[in-house]
Design a protein that fits this description.
OB fold (Dihydrolipoamide Acetyltransferase, E2P), 5-stranded mixed barrel, 37% strand
Length: 128
């Protein structure tokens, strides 16, 4: 009997995944992949230290002003947070789709979005 329920859940999950929007599936996969004790982006507050984990959606080099910076958007399935490395022109391994764990103090950017400036980070291989 337990075997049937297990199979029923598996079939139900597969059917739900077929009907779900791709963004929802991506979010579910990112949440499942996170292996570290991290703070979901939806729970982040300005001025707190936090560890976040997810996938980079975008990575951009900004050269306006006096100092260049590498800026990325990290998505964890609950929301997104900006990551900004000041004074950098390039960071090897940082590209859209890369899995990453980052730690630092959360701030509110000029546009009101949450940002972590100069976070420590660890690249994670895909599928681990």
């Amino acid at each position: 009997m337990a075997r049937r329920r297990e199979n029923g859940r598996t079939v139900g999950r597969r059917l739900r995944r077929l009907a779900a929007p791709s963004q929802e599936l991506f979010a579910e996969d990112v949440r499942r992949e996170a292996e570290v004790d991290y703070t979901p982006v939806e729970e982040l507050r300005a001025r707190q230290r936090a560890t976040v984990a997810g996938r980079l959606r975008t990575v951009v080099l900004r050269t306006e002003g006096r100092s260049p910076s590498v800026e990325a958007e990290l998505f964890d399935g609950t929301g997104q947070v900006g990551l900004v490395w000041m004074g950098r022109r390039r960071i090897v391994g940082l590209e859209a789709g890369t899995r990453l764990v980052a730690e630092g103090r959360v701030a509110r950017g000029d546009d009101g979005r949450l940002v972590i400036y100069n976070p420590t980070y660890e690249l994670r291989p895909s599928g681990q």
